[in-house]
């Protein structure tokens, strides 16, 4: 019983560490000896807390560039690289949107819903220290802008990131003449809007155990119990997006309202005149906020008119990732389901997550200046 209790108090999955290219790089850490006390291993399983706990091993993630996993006991919390911002603790799945957005070095990028800034700083790291590009980071909530500013400063990304504080992305207007050298030039857009947070699992204790099997064939609604107990998640406090009166709404109504907002934000991004690539992500396990939002967005007139599609060949490093969208929730469209990535809570390395990539089809892309 004692062993069981001490094991439930252990962190439940590996610690994920993203290398910040603005202050360090993979070569320096892994090949030139900075992390020489850690030996690389190929088996992520071994970094889950078990009897063969391995605090001196490191796993290099094949799916996300510059991402490493360590056993939760690895001595990293006070590591000097953490203090200087050269490494960032970030959940594995949360690194996937920027990895899939894959902006070229000098790209103009939007992070539409940016605070607390994990993905903004990841995008800055991907652009890198020599970039002439720019990231426009929108954050509507004034209180959360502070955290965003701090994250950008800690990452040394101030020169790359232009924060648009307290601005609703849905009101941004790239077609305004004042945006001629700003939003109008944006080609890549990352959308990580508020969601139910039903995929959030805590590192250090069981808050809830998902009973649904995201990604499993035939899955429709994960059990209701999987939504409960997530009110402390960082994004689950954003219910105001669900519109007035959300507090009295049932869980289903809330999900519908969130989904409505999520479709609107994708639609707005699709209107950016020079955009060619959009990622949409949630930390929800519900198809209602995931595949069904993707399908609704693809069926909007702006998507059809401007040639926005989803294609599995755009999944770059994740093209062999085994867990995809749920086909039934994509109205049986396998190509759309295959273009969506799902992360199952715990077993896939951390929180439950969903990411889809939209691209503007070749014909449309050829028409862009
Ligand atoms: N991408 C962030 C990260 O990885 O650190 C997390 C984003 S969190 C899920 C969603 C954020 O979007 C919240 O901070 C919320 O205040 C903001 N938000 C919601 N609706 C927005 C809107 N219409 N315009 C701008 N920001 C919005």
Description:
Helices cover 25% and strands 15% of the residues. It is of the alpha/beta class. It folds into two domains: 2-89, Sun protein, domain 3 (Alpha-Beta Plaits, 2-Layer Sandwich); 95-367, Rossmann fold. Strands 6, 7, 8, 9, 10, 11, 12 and 13 form an eight-stranded mixed sheet that branches. It has a five-stranded mixed sheet with strand order 2-3-4-1-5. Strand 6, helix 5 and strand 7 (134-139) form a beta-alpha-beta unit. It is globular and about 55 Å long. The model is unreliable at 205-248 (pLDDT under 50). The chain binds S-adenosylmethionine (SAM). S-adenosylmethionine binds next to helix 5 and strand 7.
Keywords:
alpha/beta, binds S-adenosylmethionine, 25% helix, 369 residues, Rossmann fold, globular, 5-stranded mixed beta sheet, Alpha-Beta Plaits, 8-stranded mixed beta sheet, single chain
Give the low-confidence spans: 205-248
Number of helices: 11
- CATH topology descriptor of the largest domain: Rossmann fold
What pattern of helices and strands is seen along the backbone? HEHEEEHEHEHEHEEHEHHEHEEH
Helical content class: 10-25%
Mean pLDDT: 85
Largest sheet composition = 8 strands, mixed
Distance between the termini: 67 Å
What is the annotated CATH architecture of the largest domain?
3-Layer(aba) Sandwich
β-sheet strand percentage: 15-25%
Q: Which ions and ligands are bound to the chains?
A: S-adenosylmethionine
Number of strands: 13
- CATH class of the largest domain, please? Alpha Beta
CATH superfamily of the largest domain: Vaccinia Virus protein VP39
Shape: globular
Q: Measured on Cα atoms, how large is the radius of gyration?
A: 20 Å
- Which structural category fits the helices and strands? alpha/beta
- Estimate nothing, just give the exact number of structural domains: 2
GO cellular component, one term: nucleolus
GO molecular function, one term: RNA methyltransferase activity
Keywords: Methyltransferase, RNA-binding, S-adenosyl-L-methionine, Transferase
Family: Belongs to the class I-like SAM-binding methyltransferase superfamily. RsmB/NOP family.
